[in-house]
Design brief:
With about 210 residues, the protein is an alpha+beta fold. The protein is built from six helices and nine strands. The chain has a six-stranded antiparallel sheet, with no helix packed on it. The chain is globular, with a radius of gyration of 17 Å. The protein starts with 8 loop residues before the first helix and ends with a strand.
């Protein structure tokens, strides 16, 4: 599967919102953003930041893991007349559900990928059915941050991460830490936090985020 294919994240958020009977304005009020931003995210005109994405999933009572489910994309794929077989194969590979096992081996070219606003890329490294964990290769591009507005985020669960290259600054509550290659972090995600890359090179690491939603 081509890692360049990005699943229709906005359409998936919209479906979850409608299934729960939440209006666009109500969701916007709940997470403290404008209704126009939610609309732009749902129509694919804008990508959420990490903090906004977690705020949306928390408000809707869904896991980030579920947003890698792209059944909508596969439903639309047969209608794409003349679409290359490789593209259709890539869309079919996103036909996930919570019971779909990803692995035990996931090649570098087979990762499902979400590119978020504010310079952050998530690549899904695997999934074991029945678990609520995001197993991710995370890249913060130079100047990238988990919050486009600079605010701190908080969400249910715990997270563990180890940086493999580059440098990140972690703001955790009232403290600030510089994370360098080989450094690891672990904390309750309900603690207000933010990651940012102040350097000139991408910061790359492996993260496990355990959800309790």
């Amino acid at each position: 599967m081509s890692p360049a294919v990005v699943p229709p994240l906005g359409a998936r958020i919209r479906r979850a919102r409608l299934e729960r009977g939440v209006s666009l304005r109500a969701l916007a009020r709940e997470i403290g953003v404008s209704a126009s931003l939610i609309s732009q995210i749902e129509t694919g005109k804008s990508q959420p930041s990490v903090s906004t994405l977690y705020a949306i999933t928390t408000a809707l009572g869904i896991s980030v893991e579920s947003l890698f489910d792209a059944r909508e994309a596969t439903a639309a794929a047969p209608a794409a007349v003349g679409a290359p077989a490789t593209v259709l194969h890539a869309l079919a590979a996103f036909a996930a559900d919570p019971g779909r096992r990803i692995g035990p081996l996931v090649g570098a070219e087979e990762r499902e990928r979400l590119e978020l606003d504010s310079g952050v890329v998530w690549e899904r490294l695997g999934h074991v059915p029945g678990t609520d964990v995001d197993f991710l290769l995370v890249t913060y591009r130079p100047g990238g941050s988990s919050s486009g507005s600079g605010g701190l985020m908080r969400h249910a669960g715990t997270e563990y991460g180890v940086l493999t290259s580059g440098e990140l600054v972690l703001t955790l509550g009232f403290d600030e830490y510089t994370i360098r290659p080989g450094d690891a972090v672990s904390f309750e995600s309900t603690t207000p936090h933010r990651y940012r890359n102040d350097g000139s090179e991408p910061a790359v690491g492996v993260w496990f985020v355990f959800s309790t939603t």
